[in-house]
Write a structure and sequence with these properties.
alpha/beta; 272 residues; 7-stranded parallel β-sheet; 11 helices; single chain
């Protein structure tokens, strides 16, 4: 059974609304969600937001529909990039978040995010006409580094103009990345903007994804994002180990006789 995730639920200071968002996500079958804090770098000395403890958002985590365990809630920070100098690759203030995302506003910043920034997600704006052409070279660079691209759909629910932008930008990205390293999330601000994982898979077909890629965009690819975030916070890489098959007796080399013979026998051979 697939584990579905929505890695972008917009944070609000309204506790009742946050509680309703989390409960609705669990009811729709999402096993993991991420509360998204937005950090707009327009003021040089602006402070990075501090994530609110989960226990302050909701008293008791709801049980996921169809499963016997509570929903998992992560913290995420999305940095709206306007200038490269605003973003520090290894800022201590980012360590409090499980996931780190950036939303570049220019082609130059998009290139920098794909090749150099240590992030988990690169967001593609869907609320405006595409400000630059998404080229294959930086996209391939991000794919090789394990960075995922994100498309959100809640803006398409709010406004018909944004719906056109969402579909156009999504089709352009899917055509460039060939449907790989892509996640679909809601960016929902209210429970009414949330949709079930199978509905989102069908939306992925509209964006040009294959049936398999559309399902992975809300399941296994999201899991890869979470693992990438854990790796970024704890280590510089992953060690992959594989158990070797045991060798047959014919393939094993006979050890030297001196090494295998008992000590008393070796001493007797030396005296002879």
């Amino acid at each position: 059974m697939s584990v579905f995730m929505d890695l972008n639920l917009s944070y609000t200071a309204d506790k009742s609304r946050m509680q309703s968002l989390i409960e609705t996500a669990a009811h729709l079958g999402y096993s993991t969600i991420a509360i998204n804090y937005t950090y707009e770098l327009t003021i040089k000395k602006s402070k990075v937001p501090v994530p609110t403890p989960i226990k302050d958002l909701i008293d008791k985590l709801p049980i996921v529909q169809g499963r016997c365990r509570p929903i998992r809630v992560l913290n995420r920070l999305t940095v709206l990039m306007t200038e490269q100098c605003h973003f520090k690759k290894t800022g201590r203030e980012f360590s409090a978040f499980d996931l780190l995302a950036v939303q570049p506003s220019t082609e130059k910043l998009f290139h920098v995010a794909c090749f150099t920034l240590d992030v988990d997600i690169i967001c593609i704006s869907v609320t405006e006409k595409r400000p630059f052409i998404i080229k294959r070279s930086p996209v391939n660079g991000a794919v090789e580094r394990g960075i995922m691209f994100e498309l959100s759909y809640s803006a398409a629910i709010r406004d018909s103009t944004m719906r056109r932008y969402t579909i156009a930008n999504a089709v352009a990205l899917v055509d460039t990345c060939k449907g790989k390293n892509l996640i679909l999330s809601s960016a929902a601000e209210t429970p009414l903007e949330l949709r079930g994982p199978y509905d989102i898979s069908n939306l992925g077909l509209l964006f040009g994804l294959s049936d398999g890629d559309a399902k992975e965009a809300v399941s296994s690819t999201c899991r890869s994002v979470v693992l990438h975030g854990e790796t970024r916070k704890t280590a510089g890489g992953i060690v992959y180990t594989m158990k070797r098959c045991s060798e047959t007796p014919d393939q094993q080399e006979a050890p030297p006789a001196d090494c295998e013979a008992p000590a008393a026998k070796r001493a007797k051979q030396l005296t002879e």
